[in-house]
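Write out the bound-state structure for nicotinamide-adenine-dinucleotide.
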Amino acid sequence: MDTLKVGIIGTGNIAPAYIRGCAPFGVIEVVACADLLVARAQAFAAEHGLTAHSVDDLLARADIDIVLNLTIPAAHAEVSTQILAAGKHAYSEKPLALNRADGERVMQAAAAAGLRMGCAPDTFLGGGGQTARKAIDDGIIGAPVAATAFFLSHGPESWHPNAGFYYLKGGGPLFDMGPYYLTTLVNLMGPVARVAGSARRSFPERIATSEALMGQRLPVEVNTHIAGALEFESGAIATVITSFDIWGHHLPWIEVHGEAGSLTVPDPNRFDGAVTALAGGSRDWQNLPLTHSINIGRGAGVADMAAAIQSGRRHRASGELAFHVLDIMQALEESAAAGQHITIESTLEQPLALPTGLADGELDA
Ligand SMILES: NC(=O)c1ccc[n+]([C@@H]2O[C@H](COP(=O)([O-])OP(=O)(O)OC[C@H]3O[C@@H](n4cnc5c(N)ncnc54)[C@H](O)[C@@H]3O)[C@@H](O)[C@H]2O)c1
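---
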């Protein structure tokens, strides 16, 4: 396979993780970066051996095939559309966009140009997520009946140096952390058919206790506790809670319960973690040996897209998957506001499972 050249737009907090995560994959090479803050892009380029450009100059470089959009959520749709308009394949951080209409624009731009759109999270490609997927595909717990997924915290204002945006439009626990949990559920169980949600904004403002913002009042524009029921096309039902209003809990990240047994799935914000299974009628949970590598990081989804571009197969961390997840998130909010179930109009084929036996840095053609 050829090595496709990659540029980065947005050299903030998460960008170094992509440098580390892309490095093991021979199918991609990160060569350039850009940021609205020119000095930030220059410092990042110097640190990682890249060339710094303006956004326009990076997009004009003929040798770059794929551009990563690591900007803030409010800029995702606009920057992804810019990348596609320049004739490059695009891969965005999550969420794909802030709403369905913007997400649709991005997906239509990719389709019209015959280019790939990829989107984070790609954590479901890790050893934890893929071992769980294989266990379900192999029938270890039988057909899924139900699942639970819980992200509960008291918000990022105790540690994040710039926590304000988490409480503004486009933030909140559902749009920030929901993509990890919902992407994992869809990878394990296929598409969602309809949802019902309840939501509340428990505090009108938050008080930052991080060193950087100590004592600052952060206005709250979004729901901070969202509880949802998801009915999958398969008929399985998941209970999902995302919250910034909870001080402590004993709930697991994700569990999938099948006709013949139950499965625990590790933290969907990570590539590793233990997978355990219980056979129906037994009381003993068994650790399942991991069937896939945990030596991967953010960048696996981009590399997978680069391999897929060359062979013509579907890529796994796809815009289509991210759009379905966005559709579910928006529908949960709409359901909570309207007091009724919302049908999910988008659907997709379950992502391809990763084959076993791949060496680190290797991908299937
Ligand atoms: N920080 C994390 O731990 C983390 C983890 C996982 C995912 N993410 C996701 O990664 C994305 C970026 O998060 P971050 O924490 O790195 O944010 P950040 O604010 O640290 O970095 C974003 C960068 O994008 C630049 N930028 C914004 N708009 C731009 C535009 N239109 N053109 C060019 N550059 C632009 C900003 O100047 C900034 O340098 C978000 O979608 C976030 O959800 C972050």
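---
The chain is about 30% helix and 25% strand.
The longest helix spans residues 319-338.
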